[in-house]
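Researcher: We're teaching a course module on how sequence relates to structure. For the next exercise, students receive a sequence and then see the predicted structure as tokens, so they can try to spot secondary structure elements on their own. Here is the exercise chain.
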Amino acid sequence: MTEPNAATRRVELLRARRAQKGLTRIDLYVHTEDHEKVKRFVNSLNEKRFGIITKIHPPQEKPKETIEDKLARQAEEARAKFKALL
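Model: And here is the predicted structure for the students to work with:
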């Protein structure tokens, strides 16, 4: 029989720690307009019970870097390193 991989083992340990705290997993479908409200409510419950404050970060879109921009940036970094060697 093969050993479970590291990720599977970490998830098992995480679930065991949560079970020891008396936490249970539920899946919840919420309308997108209510998503932040539900997260805030859950955080307030966790804070009251465990003193845990979970940070809620709004999703941030990273600007897409084109291949040309990436190559230009890498070339400039290489030039700067080369000049530093001189």
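Model: If you want an answer key for the exercise: The mean pLDDT is 82. Residues 67-85 form the longest helix (19 residues).
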